[in-house]
Amino acid sequence: MSSSVIDFIATEARFGAHNYEPIGVVLSRGEGVWVWDTDGNRYLDCLSAYSAVSQGHCHPKILAAMVEQAHRLTLTSRAFHNDQLALFYEEIAALTGSHKVLPMNSGAEAVESAIKAVRKWGYEVKGVPDGQAEIIVCANNFHGRTLGIVGFSTDPETRGHFGPFAPGFKIIPFGEAAALAEAITPNTVAFLVEPIQGEAGVVIPPPGYFTEVRELCTASNVMLVLDEIQTGLGRTGKLLAEQHEGIEADVTLLGKALSGGFYPVSAVLSNNDVLGTLRPGQHGSTFGGNPLACAVARAAMRVLVEEGMIENAARQGARLLEGLKDIRANTIREVRGRGLMLAVELHPEAGRARRYCEALQGKGILAKDTHGQTIRIAPPLVITSDQVDWALERLATTLTQDFS
Ligand SMILES: *Cc1c(COP(=O)(O)O)cnc(C)c1O
Q1: Which residues are catalytic?
Q2: Is the model's pLDDT at 402 over the cut of 80?
Q3: Surface-to-core class of residue 69, CB atoms within 10 Å of its CB (0-12 exposed, 13-18 middle, 19+ buried)
Q4: What is the pLDDT of residues 301-356, one digit of tens each?
Q5: Counting atoms of ligand 1 from 1, which one is nearest the CA of 256?
Q6: Which 3 state secondary structure label does DSSP give 362?
């Protein structure tokens, strides 16, 4: 480790709130699937900023769109129109088949905005008595870090000592349609759920789950809100993860890869009158829908489609999953994945996943542990077959080591 590395890490530790525990690498450059540290060492990025850099680091076309727009106009606020927002609306609606769009910045803001919108819809359209709206969520969810959201988390680390929390949420097990059927009441306005639980360790629900969920929501006039902030925009090998079961959400949340990692851009998309209940003055964001964000997002969506990244995610994801399943190692309990959203869960006796991530770092792969025993593997969607094979070789030698 050079002195400069120690310096960056020590200075962060000295001045920063310690709300993260990063792997000990200081990155200074990225291109495609690769990132470089301050000593010039190269790594294959198998986290992709939790799927935000799906298009690859510093994609030249997104970069060009950002620089061009930054020269012209960056922020107007929504007090005035700008010449990028309409085009962003048109293009995201066409891409996703949505009718209405609400632009925000972070993923958590999109979730909060959806919660506000479905509650308002519940009171004004469904006829729920004021103040009685219920939203059903799943155990082990991850929807962001705001106070409203952590209040319905089931992770003690996430919610501990941050209360009191807002009422109006009911928690059910993930992947059990019968639990949803039981939880719905006349006051239920929405079911908020991730198609695949990412932070929980890439938990894929049983086949048919979302078909049943869709039917239950339709039958009870409950808005199905899919948080596709991590699964969306090609990550699972389809544009939206909902397409794996051929269903359509009433409200879809996008973020992360919506900007290709250049800028925080998120959106609430709806197929019905949910967003139609918001009137002027009832919701907003200074930066939401700003021309720089819109120009970046337009380019990020365009390259995803034009460069075949979604098909590539399906192809390379299958190759990576098969390769991981072929690794014969006593350390591995289960390999899971859909598209390029994969995870290797280790046996409890194998030692902590973080040790394996640190060993992978030494071999030129950056991955992140989640929940102690799981290594998440989610490279940018531009990864090639050769790069997948390169990664598999290193994963195989690391996973056959014993760090217990
Ligand atoms: C990352 C994420 C969020 C929160 O997004 P932020 O931009 O970090 O606020 C919400 N939901 C899911 C499923 C996520 O993966």
Answers
A1: 142, 227, 256
A2: no
A3: buried
A4: 999 999 999 999 999 999 999 999 999 999 999 999 999 999 999 999 888 999 99
A5: 7
A6: helix
How many CB atoms are closer than 10 A to CB 333?
14
Whether the link from the prior residue into 164 is cis, omega within 30° of 0, is yes
Tell me the two tokens of residue 95: 């891409």
Question: What spacing in Å lies between the alpha carbon of 96 and ligand 1's midpoint?
Answer: 19
Domain 60-306 class? Answer: alpha beta
pLDDT at 2 over 70: no
Indicate whether residue 143 lines ligand 1 (CB < 6 A): yes
pTM of the entire predicted model? 0.97
For 306, the enclosing helix (H) or strand (E) is: helix 291-306
* Domain boundaries defined on the chain: 60-306
Strand order in the sheet with 374-377: 332-338, 341-346, 374-377, 368-370
Which residue in this structure is represented by tokens 């989610």? 378
- What b/e readout covers 232-249, taking b as 16+ CB neighbours within 10 angstroms? bbbbbbbbbbbebbebbb
